[in-house]
């Protein structure tokens, strides 16, 4: 009997250790928060995601469209509903801005769900729900959707909303979804008759304080100055690809933009701003990006939604597309989100770590992921995605009421394909593909192809000058240690260079693009796997130059994005059987900088979070969480900053200002 008891004890201990080991390497994880009603009362009524102000926030919309409210609750993996869309009568395009407002209020328990909104198959918003509370009102997700104006101006289209994930006996949550669109015409007015009396609402990103006249600087993209630098280069430099010289090394001639009013305006870069005279811009010309004339979806078309479900690297979904022969510019916009075993892809150790420790292989394949694009099977570009953390991720209390960066408005990524039009404008169908390098289940992808057309020609001429798109190089450095310890480093870098010309009725223009990608990731297991330290830095730098056939640089822009991330988790045994205590510290940021001529803008959005929680399996039992976040936004000579602090579901601090800090010295 004692022998059998000993064997049973050893078996139990072995199973317990196996489960505990599996628990260690699976962190961070996703948790379901079943909260007692008494705990829910301590949670703020409204969730917040800090984002930069929209250009239209200081104006009153000319009209609006409210779609019927929809109630989502089905015991299946996804819910999909469609509506008929037409713009409001008497409020037709052109519009200076269009804003989508999305609100989802959910009750009872549910797994936080990913949501997509499509118009005629074109995705215009990807968001997610928050963890439910007894009376939670999730914020209006406000997104500028002006870039989709060519679709929004059409009638009798289908607008589709889909909620991914599941509802079952445990997760019985029901979500009410409200969608509205705000249209801003050419003669919209400010929200207040006096700028001095303006009071901005905190939830919309403004606060009473110094009132800065944004009317001169606001705009979707652009230059404030009426003059910009033109760089002269010779023909041999032009054909060698991207001109990589700095402005200080170039031969500079400053000329007024009006020297090129016809060809550049037709190209879609320079335009008189509608209603400019009423904004104090009479006679000024602003450099900004016009919405595309046509948008073609690269997406699915079945009952499971429009997004492609990527299970592994070999899943490359393609769509055949014929590009109109009068296209003079093309930009591919990619939407992406990661779920399941790849929700925390940046923390996944290599497969060899699992084999060495006799662990079940689930969340592995290393910590490198890239979303790539192919045309006719050839690699043409990729993106390193921002590591969005959903509201149930790591510790749900960290994201109440201030959610993680991008959780309510997941970013999309633009890949400029204009230099490749010489390969596409042949009247044939071309296969556009999307995939994820090293991906494991599962990723949701789709894309929108934005096309600018020559209104005065049925056919334009185009050609490619330079094409360099090698595979991204990935270097992995594993260091194994006794027990569950180990240190794994991943370094990846890549560069693409494209150059091509398009000859339209606006003129002959050469677009050159140089893009650099870098990723550095380290995963360290300590204390027999009880401590896991993840650090990652992503950097993406893109330079775009547009040059006329006369050798003038018409536009030169640099776009820089950085995504630093640090996560440390420590796990301990809980006081109750089969419970554990998880201590977490997180630091992550989204940094974006744009410079073009005399114009520059920057956004720095940073969060610091810490907390602990008791959990059993994937169920959150109790805990605490603290988050501090600061957003700083500079657009030309305008500034905006906002700082918030939250603890255990309560908002403790929310300060914002539009003062610009004076330069030192």
Please describe what this structure looks like.
By secondary structure, the protein is mainly beta. The chain has a domain at 36-187: Jelly Rolls (Sandwich), CATH 2.60.120. The protein is built from seven helices and 34 strands. The strands form seven sheets. Strands 1, 24, 25, 26, 27, 28, 29, 30, 31, 32, 33 and 34 form a twelve-stranded mixed beta sheet that branches. Strands 2, 3, 5, 8 and 10 form a five-stranded antiparallel beta sheet that branches. Strands 15, 16, 18, 21 and 23 form a five-stranded antiparallel beta sheet that branches. A hairpin with a 2-residue loop joins strand 33 (638-647) and strand 34. The chain is globular and about 75 Å long.
In short:
The chain has 665 residues and is mainly β.
Number of helices: 7
Through-space gap between termini: 83 Å
Helix content range? under 10%
- Largest sheet: number of strands, sense, barrel closure: 12 strands, mixed
Based on Cα principal axes, name the global outline: globular
By CATH, the architecture of the domain at 36-187 is named: Sandwich
Oligomer: single chain
Radius of gyration, in angstroms, nearest whole number? 26 Å
Strand elements, count:
34
> CATH first level of the domain at 36-187: which class?
Mainly Beta
Uncertain segments of ≥5 residues (pLDDT<50)? 6-19, 36-40, 166-171, 192-265, 268-288
- Tell me what portion of residues adopts beta-strand conformation: over 45%
- Mean pLDDT comes to 80
CATH topology of the domain at 36-187: Jelly Rolls
Structural class: mainly beta
């Amino acid at each position: 009997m004692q022998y059998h008891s000993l064997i049973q004890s050893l078996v139990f201990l072995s199973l317990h250790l196996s489960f505990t080991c599996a628990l260690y390497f699976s962190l961070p994880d996703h948790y379901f928060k079943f909260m007692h009603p008494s705990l829910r009362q301590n949670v703020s009524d409204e969730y917040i995601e800090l984002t930069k102000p929209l250009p239209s926030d200081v104006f009153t919309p000319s009209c609006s469209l409210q779609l019927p409210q929809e109630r989502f609750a089905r015991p299946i993996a996804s819910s999909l509903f469609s509506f008929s869309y037409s713009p409001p009568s008497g409020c037709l395009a052109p519009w200076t801005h269009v804003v989508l407002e999305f609100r989802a209020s959910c009750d009872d328990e549910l797994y936080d769900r990913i949501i997509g909104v499509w118009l005629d198959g074109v995705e215009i918003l990807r968001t997610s729900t928050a963890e439910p509370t007894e009376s939670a009102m999730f914020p209006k997700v406000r997104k500028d959707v002006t870039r989709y104006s060519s679709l929004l101006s059409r009638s009798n289209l289908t607008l589709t909303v889909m909620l991914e994930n599941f509802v079952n006996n445990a997760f019985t949550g029901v979500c009410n979804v409200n969608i509205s669109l705000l249209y801003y015409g050419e003669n919209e007015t400010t929200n207040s008759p006096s700028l001095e009396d303006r009071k901005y609402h905190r939830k919309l990103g403004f606060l009473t304080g110094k009132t800065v006249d944004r009317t001169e600087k606001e705009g979707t993209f652009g230059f404030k100055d009426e003059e910009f630098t033109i760089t002269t280069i010779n023909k041999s430099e032009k054909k060698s690809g991207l001109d990589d010289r700095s402005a200080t090394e170039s031969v500079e001639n400053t000329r007024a933009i009006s020297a090129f009013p016809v060809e550049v305006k037709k190209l879609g870069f320079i335009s008189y701003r509608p209603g400019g005279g009423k904004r104090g811009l009479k006679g000024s010309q602003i450099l900004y990006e016009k919405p595309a004339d046509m948008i073609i979806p690269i997406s699915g078309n079945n009952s499971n939604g429009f997004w492609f479900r990527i299970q592994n690297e070999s899943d490359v979904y393609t769509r055949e597309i014929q590009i109109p022969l009068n296209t003079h510019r093309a930009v591919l916009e990619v939407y992406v989100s990661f779920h399941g075993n790849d929700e925390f892809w940046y923390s996944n150790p290599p497969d060899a770590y699992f084999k060495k420790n006799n662990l079940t292989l689930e969340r592995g394949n290393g910590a490198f992921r890239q979303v790539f694009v192919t045309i006719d099977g050839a690699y043409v570009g990729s993106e390193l995605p921002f590591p969005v953390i959903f509201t149930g991720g790591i510790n749900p209390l960290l994201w109440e009421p201030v959610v993680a960066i991008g959780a309510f408005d997941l970013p999309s990524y633009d890949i400029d394909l204009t230099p490749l039009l010489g390969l596409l404008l042949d009247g044939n169908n071309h296969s556009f593909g999307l995939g994820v390098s090293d991906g494991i289940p599962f990723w949701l992808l789709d894309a929108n192809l934005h096309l600018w057309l020559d209104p005065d020609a049925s056919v334009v001429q185009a050609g490619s000058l330079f094409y360099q798109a090698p595979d991204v190089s990935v270097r992995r450095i594993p260091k194994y240690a006794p027990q569950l310890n180990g240190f794994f480093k991943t370094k990846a870098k890549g560069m693409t260079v494209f150059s091509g010309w398009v000859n339209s009725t606006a003129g002959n223009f050469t677009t050159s693009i140089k893009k650099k990608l870098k990723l550095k990731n380290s995963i360290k297991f300590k204390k027999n796997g009880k401590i896991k330290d993840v650090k990652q830095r992503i950097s993406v730098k893109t330079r775009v130059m547009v040059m006329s056939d006369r050798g003038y640089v018409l536009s030169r822009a640099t776009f820089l994005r950085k995504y630093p991330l640090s996560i440390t988790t420590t796990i301990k045994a809980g006081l109750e059987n089969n419970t554990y205590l998880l201590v977490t510290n997180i630091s992550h940021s989204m940094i974006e900088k744009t410079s073009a001529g005399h114009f520059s803008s920057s956004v720095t959005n940073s969060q610091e979070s810490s907390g602990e929680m008791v959990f059993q399996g994937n169920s959150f039992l109790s805990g605490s969480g603290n988050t501090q976040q600061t957003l700083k936004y500079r657009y030309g000579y305008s500034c905006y900053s906002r700082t918030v602090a939250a603890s255990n579901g309560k908002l403790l601090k929310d300060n914002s200002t539009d003062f610009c800090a004076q330069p030192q010295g």
